[in-house]
Each structure stands twice: as C-alpha cells, then as structure tokens.
Protein 1
Amino acid sequence: MIHQIVCGAQNHKQGDCVVVALPGAVLPGDFAIKHSKIRGVESGGMLCSLKELGLATESEGILILPDDAPIGTPFAEYKKLDDVVFELKVTPNRADCLSHRGLALEIACLLGKPICEPESKIVEGDFDCDIGVAIRAKDLGPRYAGRMVKGVKVGESPEWLKRRLETVGMKSINNVVDVTNYVMMELGQPLHAFDVRELRGRTIIVDRAVSGETFVTLDGSELKLDGTELTIRDSERVVALAGVIGGKNSGVQDDTVDVMIEAAYFTPASVRRTMRKFGIETDSGYRFSRGVNPETTTQALDRATQLMIEVAGGLASRNRIDVYPEPVPRTEIQIALATVEARLGYTIEASVFEMWMKRLGGELRVLSPGLYKFVAPAHRMDLHIDMDLVEEFGRLNGYDKIPETLPVGGFMPAAHDELYIAEMRARRVLKGMGCLQALNYAFIGDGYQKDFIGDVELWCDAGLFVDGSDVRIVNPLNEEINVMRRSLLPGLYRNLLHSVRFGSPSGRLFEIGVSVHAVSDRSQAVRTERFQGTGYGEEKRLGFCFWGGETDLWGRAQVAEPAVTLKGVVEAFLGTYGVSSIDFEPFEEGRAPGILHPGKAVVVRANRVPVGFLGAVHPSRLQSDKVRTGAAVGEFSLEKILKAVSAVRFTPISPFPAMERDVALVGARSIPAGEIVTDFVKLARKFEADGGRFLKSASVFDVFEGESLGEGKRSVAVRMVFQSADGTLEDSVVNQVRDKLVHAICEKHGVSVR
Amino acid sequence: MTDQMKTKIDSIRLEAETAFKAAENSRDLYELKVKFLGKTGSFQSVMKEMGSLPPAEKPIAGKLVNEAKQALEGTYSECEERLKARELEAKLKSEMLDLTLPGVPVSRGAEHPVSLVMDEIAMILSRMGYSIRTGPVIETDRNNFEGLNVPKDHPARDMQDTFYIDEHHVLRTQTSPIQIRTMETEKPPIRVAAPGGVFRCDADISHSPNFHQIEGLCIDKKVSMADLKGTITFFVGEFFGRGLKTRFRPSFFPFTEPSAEVDCQCPLCKGKGCRMCSMSGWIEIGGCGLVHPNVLKFAGLDAKEWQGFAFGFGIERMGIIKYGINDIRLFNENDVRFLSQFSM
C-alpha cells in the first residue's frame, strides 16, 4: 500500500527505511496523527524523528533506520520496546519488594506457586582472589562478600542490558557498572565494583571513618567525615561510603582490567544517617536504608560475576570472599490463632491460617493447638511481632473478609476541648453577622510580616503579644513562607488584595487561628500557655479585614466606612459573650500600628484588659496597593476575650415607663465621644443616691460639626434613658439627675450645653 | 312666616348640598361644612331670625332647621368618604415603591469549608462518644515521630517531608501527636477526635504545605479491625450519604498494625463510575489501623490489657469530594467569591 506523506525534513533520500505514524496513531504528548493537507497537498501520516517518538529530548531530522530493517514491522516491536512497565508505589516497610525477585516472591505467595531463580554459571580462572576482607565494625556492617574478575574489557553494554536498565529508569554507564545495577534491580542487593589497580594493600577494611578525614565521591563531591560513618577502606584511605556511594579514587574506569565486586549487608540506620547527613540519594542507599536481605549477598555476587563475564569478558577468581562473623538471626514470632481472630474480628480456620503462613515462605511450627511459632523468611525483614502476622494474614486472606461491627466496651460520654467549642461558636456568631471565614497558612514571609507589624510595642499595648523575633522554619519551601505568623493580619490583608483584584469591591473577612511565638521572659508573661512541653507559645487569635460597602444600596450611602462597620461587629460580637465592660480607646499619643490610619484606630478593652485593636487601614498603604475603597482591620486575642466572658444571668426588667432626656454637648473635636458616654455611666454610679441609679443607658444619637460651632468643635448629642423598677419616675427627679450629670460632664471635659 | 322660613332653609340646604357634592377635595369640603354648618355658618343666621317668630312657630321652624342640618351632615359624610377614598388612592399611587430594586444589603456570612467539614466530622464522631482534643502546631519530635513508632533514622520519615523548627521541634506532620498527648494524660477507655492543621514540605499543584486532618482514636479492652470498619462505614454513611459501602486496602503506617487505606463508594455516582472517581466507583478517603503496640507502650499503656484503633481523614480532600471543589489552592486564597458559596 502506498501512502502519500508530506515531510518537512531534509535528511532522507529515496530508498531510506523510516518510521511512519499513520492516521490514528497517537505520539507522545497526546499528539494524534490525522489526514491533513499541507500546502494544498494531501498528507496521510508523518515520518517521525527520535524526539517525536519520545526517544530523545532533541534530535535532528527524521529517524533513518538501517537498510535491513524489516519493512511493515511495528517500530516498537522492531526496537523491542513493546515491554510492559508497571509503576508500583512501595511502602517503606516492604523493602523486599524493591526488586524483581522480591516482587516475584510476593506474587508467588499470593498465587501459591514457586519462583524461578536466575541461574549463575561462573567461568572461573585459575587464580585466587588475593584481596582479603576485615570487618572491624560488625555492628554497622555485619557481612561483606567479594570476588575478583580479571581481564574485563570495559565498554558499551549490549542492547538488551541497556534497554532493560532504561525500562526501570536507569542510565547505562558501561558494561561493568551496568551489571552491578542490573543485579541490584533483579535481586535487590546493591553491588559495587572497584578497580583492583587502585586498591592499596591487599585487604578491604569495613570500619568507621576516622574523624576529620575527607572522601571524594564518584561524582566528585568532597565530604568531610566525622567518624560515625561506615566506610570501606583499603590500607590507606576510604574507597567507598558503605552502601551509599563509591569513591572517585577506586571506581571502574574505561581502561579498568581487573575488578573487585562487592556484595555486602550494611545496617539500615547507619546507611540512612550517612545519606541524610550528606544529602546523598542513591539507589543503593535507598535499598540499604530500608533493609536488604542479608541472605542474598552471595547469590547476588555470583549472579553479577556470571553476567559481568558474559558482557565484559574476563575470568572469575576461583574463590569468593564472604566474611559474616555473626549471621543475622531470623526472627521468631509466637502467635496464637485466637489473637488473629480477636484483632481481625472474625473466626478463622486453622488450616487457612497455616496455609498463608507457609506461603509467606517462613517456617511454621505448631506449639499446641492454635499456638504457633513462626520463623520469618529472610527477605521479610519487616516481620517482628505477632501483630505483623495479624496484618499479613488479614491482607493475604483479604481485607474484604473483615466484617463490620461496632466496638462494645467502656462508653465514654463526649467532653470536648473547650476552646474548640468556643471557636466553633465564635465562627457561627460571626457568620451570622455577615462575615466570611478565611483560612491562611500558619507561616508567612519574614520580610512582609516585619513590615506589616511595624512597632511591636504598640501591638503589646493593645494586648497582642507579637514578640520581636520570628519563629523560623529551618527548611522552608520558599522565602514567602519561611517564618511562623505572629499576626493574622498580613494574611487577611493579602486576601483583600486578591479579592479586590478579582472583582469583589467589598468584603468582610474574619479568621480564627494561631499566632506563634518564641519563648522569652516577656512572652512567658503575655502568652497563654495551653500546651506544655514544646517551648513555643501559641495563641488563638481573631482577625478581621473589611473593605468597601460604603455605598451598597443603589449607589447611595448605606453603611458607614469599614472601620465603623467593623467596630459595630466587634461590639456585637463581644456583646454576645456577655462581656460587661467594653471600651474603645485611642492609642496613646495618637499613635497606632503602622498599618493603621493613626487617627482612626482604637485599642479594645474587655473588662478593662486590652484584648486587641481595630482601625482603618492607612490610606498610603491602600493607595500603593491600588485599593480604591476604604478598608479596616482588627486583631484580637480570642483567648483573652474568652477570659472576659461572663455567664448569662437574668436581670429583672422594669414594668414602669422609661424616660428619655437628650442633651447636646459642644466641645473640641479631639475629645473622644466614647469617653463622654462612659463618664455618664461612671458619674451616675457616683451620684447613685441622688437618682443616678435610675440611669439605664447613655448613647450618642447625633454628631454635628459646622461653622456655626466654631473651628475644631463639634456637637455630640447624648440620649439618657432613666427607669425605675419601683415606680414611674417624676419629671422633677429625672431632670435633677440629668442636670447634675450634665454639669459634671461639662466640668470634666470642658464642654458646654449647646 | 314659616313658609318664608321654610323656603330659606330649603334654599340653604340645596345650596349646601350642591356645594358639598361639587367639592374637589376633603379640605374644601371641610371649609364648606364650616361655612354652612359652623358656628358662624348660614344656619346660625337662620337660627337668629327664628327668635322673631311667634312662639307657636318656633318649634316647627326649629324642627325644620334640625332636619336640614341632619340631612346635610349625612351628605357631608357621604362626600367626605368618597373624597377621602379618592385621595387615599391618589396618595398610594404617588407613593409607589419599586420593590424590584435590591433590598438593604444584609451580607450572608459563611464558615470556611475546612471548618464546615471539620465540625461536621467532629460532631458525627461526637455522637459515637468521641471527645474533641487539640494540640499545638509546633510539636516535639518525640510526640510527632518517636512516640508514633517512627524513631530517628527510620525510613518512614521519608513518607512525610517535615518542616523543622529546631533540632527537637517540627511543624506537626499529622494530627497523631494529639493521640500521644491524650493517652499520656487521660485514662482509658479513650475515644477522641483530633482535628487540626498539619504541615508537609511536599507542596505541588495538588498538595498544600499547610492542610488539615482529623483523626479518631479508640482505646479499649477489646477492639478489632471489624469494629474499625463498622465505625468508618457508619461515619461515611452520615457524612456522604447512607448506604455507601467502604472497603479497606492494605497499607503501611508506622503507628498502626494492621494498617489499611479506606475507600468509600464514590458519593457522586454511588459507585457506578464517574470522572471524580476515575471511573473506578471508589474514592480514597483516608487511612486507619489498629494502634501499634509500640505506640501504646510509649504512651504508658499495657499493650496486653489495652488495644485500640485509629483512623484519619484529610479535611480538604473530604471537602473536595463533598463540595466538588476543583483546586486545592482555592482553600487558602480566601477569595470572597469562593467563601461566599458556603453560607449554608
């Protein structure tokens, strides 16, 4: 069949064998080939380059195959690329599954069939391995085996070897190194090959490093050793970091002729410590740190010897070295069938249990009916206690066989963490007030946070401990999130910018979350200590960020500027907690945290204790962030607020009419109206005997500023409500109290009745 | 003389009736009433004239005046009623309020979906007798790892990329340290639910470095995998919808043995297969297992006397499944358009 295909490449000539993708084919990157017209010419397919086939990252022109390539054969078949690759996620406990043989054993167990072991037929030369091994740190390196292969020819690996390594994601290096990697993947035993020329002396020593010595790895990095690392050494120096990486001084070179193959067992913790310390990740280290079967050492050594001779030539020494002074014992576990039944929750036939234990490859001895001793197979280093066997039986027999029941036993009535319940309630109260709950990361960028918090003292004055220094993350993901937050506001303000940018001209956000502090003498005094033992302080905070909304009703002014709306929400919020005394006072000397407008900020006190602050965001900040509406923020210690909470106690209500008296007071603008109103209540208490006790409330109902009052002046109209529980009040009594209060207020604040 | 009087009364009455009926609004009408019936009105002058009548005629004339006045009062009431009705109608017409315009905005608040999910799970567990417990976000290495059967140099530490604060402190990688805190301070039997924020430094497009978990811990004298499965199935039914099945898959967690991953039937397609469950009909929701004896021992419990099970779920993941949220980043951007969707 003839296909007409338009091709833009230049590197082909008539008669070339090429790779063609016909319509219907899908190339890597989900590139589907279709019939098309290229410059008006019908084209039914594409001639492929290596890059298009996903076989190279860069390639020039289309791929030209040798003339003997069988025409019409699928390319994958021709290149033997039609292999199936399974990607498995192996949990850390199943190191035995990190090789093909290991997986075969697992499948054999499930299917109840034996596995085929790879054969090792070794071509021996007529010489002995004249390098000895001495283990001097058998706690870290219990077993070390080796064999010499003389006369190898280092070169490219055969195609099958390269391809198989590529299939499992490894790069081919040379035939000798490839064999060690291949056997590691096949049998799970990491191997290393030394160039015999480079080994000084005739003994390989397994010992801890000498403190202070240096070691240069295969890939050229220089490490300074501290004496805790397990090393492989010749008579003079370190030649490998045991199980982790080989040395530059002794690796296989292009002109290497004689090779010493190492197959050893090193303990997981030691290898892992060394890897972590130097930040080295290798396939060998990965396996050793999870656990290598100490009984595959010589099998792997034989297999590698055979394969190396097969692909690189040479002859093996007659003998192999195997130093294993104290064999690692197999784990013996005593297990009762009744335990398995109780933990899994169903009855089990002894024969079924015995079958699975045998299939695991271990040895099962019946001690008495229903009581067994199980000797774990060498490759299952994760089996230590009876519960491990409960799991093994459970999963092999099928988790689907576990029935569904509910626990019976000591029922405990739920008594929840009080702060969680309080927080849940606070969220719902604020939701009811029209606020949206935000949730930001507990960490933030140090620069942004520092800039945002500004003068720490002002925060402390408002009852918010922010400390001077950050709690740093040693290994942050990036510099945007490198310290723990000391305040909720930097995050909330960022949420405002995001929302405004994406089309939300108004919003009311709140957040409840922790602020984190380092311990200092001062923080000890200020922070609340809920959790013992970490040495870091965490406080539950409540943060707000409101913006926009001033003209929400058909373009008409409907609500006040955000700071006033926020104040209303805070008042109502504290009110729902029954906080009896709530005060809003400007910061001292007209200052305020840098994010706030200095003239629009207050410290909030509950029962006279500062619990936080609120105010309008500084206009310069809004301007530089291109926010065109007003915005307000507030932050509170939720824990301090909760301390001010009082339980609901019913107050009798009067059956007699209330009487109102209004008074307008003129004075300097700078006199806080809040103080005047508070003083009405305070003074009423003072004049209690003179009828002050009848004052139920005093509140501002009008504020007026105008030229008629004079510059810098304003009028604040206050409504007093009087009521008695014992009878209808006489006008004369009420007027008398009013006059007394007003007189005292005028005197104290220097205001006059308008 | 009375005839003359009668004619006069009749003529006033006629004039008044005509005027009343012609009045255009209630105010004019009232003025007319004053003019004819008021203290200085037309009838008053007739009454004055009556004084000169002979005594015998006075009652007759008086009666005539009263009859006329009564009739006029009646006419007035009728006219007034009619005018008032017309005027009210006009007033209502002029006062029309366009209630198709938006009302005074009352913002609907909302809790964050993470809080919604966390509370809902906590409250379902609470009904089964689980008490909520919390812990700090900066944890000791001891509580976060060692106590949970993850000693230093253990490969399981690779499962969770950990943020370190100093040599002995980490940002907790799981809510499980709360288990240790509870077992060390409370006497068994124990049933606790531990919600909270956790931290891992393996963030990518589908992982956040700061997400949330909740886990349940049950310590008692006799608990089994079957009890665990029953507990989780009950929970799944309450949270996602009754009737959904659950299944366990073998897994590994250092602090449980046996361990399992939990799948539930996809709540969206009820197990038929859809995009959310990648056509499998099942969706992974968390991990669980029987508490490892080493964990019990570490916390000072006799592993021969006490056993336990534990299970944990990712809050964001549960929210993604329950609400169909399609991007993990939405959870922390706090966009008003996102948050306001959860005002239920």
Protein 2
Amino acid sequence: MPQYKAPVEDMMFLLRDVFRVEDVFAELPEQKDNDLETIGSILEEAGKFCSEVLYPLNAVGDIEGCRLENGVVRTPDGFARAWKTFSEAGWGGLSAPTDYGGQNLPRTVQILVDEMLSASNLSFGLFPGLTRGACEAIEAHATQHLKDTYLPNMISGVWTGAMALTEGNAGSDLGLLKTTAVPRPDGSWTVTGSKIFISSGDHDMAENVIHLVLARIPDAPAGTKGISLFLCPKVLVNDDGSLGARNAISVGALEHKMGIHAQPTCVMNYDGCQGWMVGEPNRGLAAMFTMMNAERLFVGVQGLGVADASGQTALAYARERLQGRVPGRSGTVPIIAHADVRRTLLSMQSFIEAARAMVVHTALEMDREKFHPDAAVRQRAGENVALLTPVIKAALTDFGFEATVAGQQVLGGHGYIREWGQEQYVRDARIAMIYEGTNGIQAQDLVMRKLMLSDGLPVRTYFAQIRQTLADAAADSHAAALAEPLRSALDLLEGVTTRLVSGDLANNDDRNAAAVDYLRLFALVSFGWMWVRMVLACAASGKALPEACVQHKRAAAIFFMQRVLPQATALTQQIGAGAGSIMALADEMF
Amino acid sequence: MTGHDAMKKILVPIKMVLDANMRPRVKADGSGVDLSGMKLSINPFCEIAVEEAVRLKEKGLAEEVVVVSIGPAKVQDILRQAMAMGADRARLIETDQPVEPLAAAKLIRTAVAEETPDLVILGKQAVDDDCNQTGQMLAALLDWPQATFASALHVEADSVKVTREVDGGHQTLVLPLPAVVTTDLRLNEPRHCALPNIMKARKKPLDVRPVAECGVDMAAHLNVLSVRPPEARKAGRCAANVNELVGDLHAAGVI
C-alpha cells in the first residue's frame, strides 16, 4: 500500500550543503541559535507526525468529506482528534512569536513542515496554514487588545482562523466587493454580507473560528482603496477571555468541490455580526496583503508537497510492478526498467527537488527580510521575495499538478482507481493553481509589476546571481557540464525580459499574452539554477552525503538540462510571437 | 509505590544505529556496514526503553530519568531526542572506536556507579548487530536481577513486576530493586515529541566525557572475518511435475 515518508534527508541536504543555513541564521540575531541538529530533529518529528497521524486520514477524509448538518460543519472521522494532537504537540506555533506562545522559528523551517503537511494531507494542512495567515495579519495590524485576546488561543490551536475575501461578484477583482461594516457606539462594527469559497470557514475541531473579513465602511471610496479588514469571531469572547454568545455568523452552504473534500470550503453569511477593525480604515487590502507573500509561498509548497506524495507512490509502484521485458534482462521486469517509466519518474523528481530548493532559497530571503538587523538588507530581501513569490506560487502548483498526473500515469489503470490514492492527488493538487490568486494572475503580477519593481533591480540581481553560479560551476566537472544549457536558457530569458520591460513587447497586450509562458520560462531557468547549485554542493559536501544521493542528484540534473530545460526555446518563441494572433480575433468570433 | 517514595532515578542506556528505513550497504573492503552519510537514529528498542522510563516519571513513580550513550559526538542527536521525549539529562561517553557488547556493559556500569539508579531500562537488542547481550552482561557485572524482553512493567514497593515474552507465552517475574530490564516491542508505543519539548531539550544538561576516562578495556575481543550483503535471490523456474521438483530439491541439497 502507498506510504508517505517526509523527505527529511533531502531537506537537510539543502539546508546543510546547498544553502548553509547556519551561516545565514548566524546573521539574524533572533535566529542565531538555530543549529542544524535542532532543525533536523524538528523536521524529523514533524515528518513522523505527518506520516503516522495525518497521512492515514488523507484517503478517509477524501471519501467521507465534510458534511453540513443543521448549520454545523462536521469534519471527517479522525480530523478533530488529529487537530487536537497537532495542537497539543505545539506545531501550530512553530514560527509564531514567543510573546503569544509560539517558538519564533524561521520561515525556512516552517515552510518545510508545510510541505510535509501538504503532502500527507492537503485538506488538513490548510487549517494551520490559514490560522497562521490570520495570526500574522492580526499581529501586524490589530490593536494590542485584539492581539492579546485572540493570538494565544489561535497559536495554540484552541481556536482556528479563516480569511473571508471572495464574494460572488468579487473574486480576482476584490474592488467589487459589497460586504458592509457600520460603526457601533462601543467602537466595534456591524458586518453584513455574504462570502464564498471560505476555507476552514466552520468546523467541529475547535471551539471558535476567527474570521478576518473584508468589508466597506460607510462613504468608503469605490474599488480596492475603500476596503477595510474586520475580525469577526464565530463565538464572541468575554472580557475575561471566556466564550460568550454566538455571533451572527452562519454557514450558508458547503461548496461541492473537485478535491480537498476534507476541507470545509464554506459559503459564509455575516448577518450583522459584531466585528473589530484590524488596521486602518480603507487600508484592509493592504493589511491582508502583508502576509500574502507568505500565503502564496505556502500555496506553492502545496503543489510541491502533493507532487512529492504522488512521486513516492509512483516510485514504489514502479519498483514492484512486474510488466514486460527488456533486452539484456531475464524474465518479467519491474516497470522501472522501462525507459519511458524512468523518464516519467525523473521528470517528477527533477521538478520536485529543484522546486524544494527554490522554496528554501525564497524562505531564507523571507527570514532575512524579517530578521536581518540591517534595514538595507531587509529591504533588498523583501524585493527579492516579491519577485519570486508569483513564480513559486504559480510554477510549483502548475508543475506540481503536472507531476501528479505523471504519478498517476505510472500506475496505469491503478492510478485511475481510488485504492492507490493517485487520483486524489490529481484532484487535490488542482485547487492550488486556482486559489490565493489564480496562476494567470500570478503571471500578470510577475510581468506587469515585479519585473519593474525598483527599476528592475531585483530581477537584474537575480540573473546576476545565476551568472555567478555559472562561473562557479567551472570548479566541478559535473556542474560544469550543466552550465552550458543553463547559460543558453538564461540568455533567452534575459532577452525576452528586456523585450517585455522596455522593448517591442513592452505593452499591455503583449505582456498579458506572454505572462504565463514567461513565468514558466522564468521557473525553468530557476530550477536549472538550483540543479547546478545542488550538484556543486554534492562536490563540496565531502563525505556527508551518501554516494547514492550524489549519483541521483547528478543524474537528475543532467536529465533536467537535457529533457526539461529545452522547453525554454519553445517558450521564448511563443512569447516572441506577441499578442497579435490572440487579439486579432473579435470576441464574437471565438 | 506512591509519589513521595518514588524511585529516585531511572537510567536508560541507548544506542544509535543505522535508521531502520535505510537500506544497509556493505563497505567495499567487506569490513562492515558503510554508515557514511547515512541516516542514523535511536535504536527502536532503546526508544521504547526511554518511553517507558518517561511514563514512569509522568506517573510519579520515578523522580528523574537519565539517558546515557556511547559513541561519536553525533550520538548527541539521539540523546537530545530522548530528552525531547522527557528524559531530564544525558551523558555521552565519547569514542570513535567500535564498541562491543561487553565493553558497552562495562562503560554503562561506570555510569551506574556514578548515578546509582534504582532501575536500568535498556532495549533488548540493537537492530544493527542484533547482539542481545548488553543488558544481560550489565546485570551480571552489577550482580543485579534482570528481566529481559519485557512486554509489561509495573512498579511496586521496592520491586518491579515484569511480564516477559518467552517462547511458550508470557512469564511474569518480580525483581527487587535495583534491577535491569530490557524492552520488547510490545511494551509501549513511543510518543511523538512535542515541538516545545524539542526546543527545551536543547537546554537540558548533556555531560560529555571521553571514553579514556572510564578505565574500560576497549580492545576488540571479537574478530570480524567479513561482512557481505545477502545473496541476491536467483531467478526461479517452473518444474514440469512433482518428480522433477523433488529431484531438483535433492540436487540442490535442501531435502
């Protein structure tokens, strides 16, 4: 039967050999005591928890799903118990501030644990993920009283969080939203409106759900500059911290979805409920977007995690399934002997391992942005994160979804039936391409905004870093062999970047039409960069790495350069074609 | 036994081994298993021993749990893990040499002499060499009663009642304290460590001392002739009939 094992060794390879995180953390006063041994034991224990507690609930949750009974959401059997275990073990507080009961560990560690959560049980992983997002918004923008009232119980998992943005007519364009908030004499607000697609909107796992709701106050300007953020608890909290009356919040319906069946995605009704403003009036979207980079990194990691879970099953199956013969081997062979199956497995692995490296690279920049003592370093790191966030979100979920389809394909008919779990990964992975800003929106963000950020300094810096690695690669024959294909692809990427920023494609339609292809090209070059860095790290790590790991990395890197990165040429042509063929056709001719 | 007359101390000797999920590879020169770069973990039976000791402490039946291990500096990882599970402090007897069971038992005896525990709980064997000797040798060296392969353990006044898994079923022994107990798989299921306890374990005391200070003869008394991986399974074939099968089995010398 399928199993999930957290890839702790690969994570530690990245932390120890590729990114040397002890050196990075040494520069961050709050994080300087985080040694590899401690991080290793945290990842080890989190991995055990995910494999042994959350993974066995994944298929159960998919089949049973959430139910709405008399206005109350019931989660699948075992979820409430798992949440209690998760919370009591303190996992919800990993990167939360110590003032409110958290451990203040780096984002880099958090995001690797998030990968395990997503891989073992995507539906479950959303509960702590959203709760953390809500906590970060409250911590950054709410009054001290709200922080003291809500953060400790949310961080300990006694309560959970939900983010209520989308409405029926306001999705990608939140400026259209209609939910209202009217002031009350005591300083709180009356919030009225209806929201859809609210993940973890209600459930039976914790005694309270804290909603962060976007709404308009009276006389607010139209559009996104007239949106404020409100904290609305499902159950009102008394002055002494105990729970009081039910707030006027109810579940209108549960959405019926393609995947993540165990995650209660709710239609929420706020029927004149009591709320408290978080942050400034009409600055709600900005407050919400404070943690948007972190949330989008989290969603990208969901694509990576589910891909890895599917890849592990595909690999185990390919080693055991006996079908067909190959020249030079006697008898029926395990299907891993067939070139096409090997190609499929390597296509998954060459994505997964490079994507994990990209995640660590980006999370370390987030840690610098948050913890570095030098404001200039924080500023630059923040810009680098801003540049990479849409790439991580969209590329890891696009490629991640493709990987789950590949993982399904390895199992043939057994991938299509439920028993092996491969079809669930395909359905579950699909949502990550859509929510938290669709991947199309991410690509627009990259091409229309992030390339131009700070006059293009972050993207130029990024390309310069890659060129530096290409120079370093000469020191190791294995890495040097990878440098030429990566250099060619980087040349293509830099070429179209110039055309989009200031050349013949620097107009709205061409940029818009190029965006998705451009993001993919950007991601492929980034993965190639990570492969060269990983192969260089293999040479530098001495005896710390098992020989089998070194051989695997070198082979997967060559595979990536020879059989994945050549897509860069086609993508460059597609981008270069411009929007002409797309825009020429009249709407009614489609 | 109630809280106020709880055992003062339980000592839990633990061993680091190649992680049970890793595929062992033999060194090219056939001298042993290649551990370089491989994942090393606490021996599963030792983890059960730590769990049992911590549970006794949590029930108020013991005041302190001390873990001890022998090996290179890397062994600190499993000592920290044991402290994350709930052990109070740790001792590392540091050596890069191989440690045979008798030397291990003698080194643990030096820790017993300093710690004077009421109870020593060990794993029944380590999954690397499967020797199943250290606990027995330790009991003999100390001249303490021993109960091996424990599947249940109850602390009573000045004694422990241990249910052992033996070939014919279960055997129950009562041992006066101090005593040595070794754990079998069914004794308990080790816990998942809580994150705050992992963080706290970093600050718990860990005493490191070189093996040379222990005055124990570390010379090898066992001579390893060669280590090799198990023979790969050969391809089978279908016999045409029973007579042919019996003939083949005779020819192979297996019947």
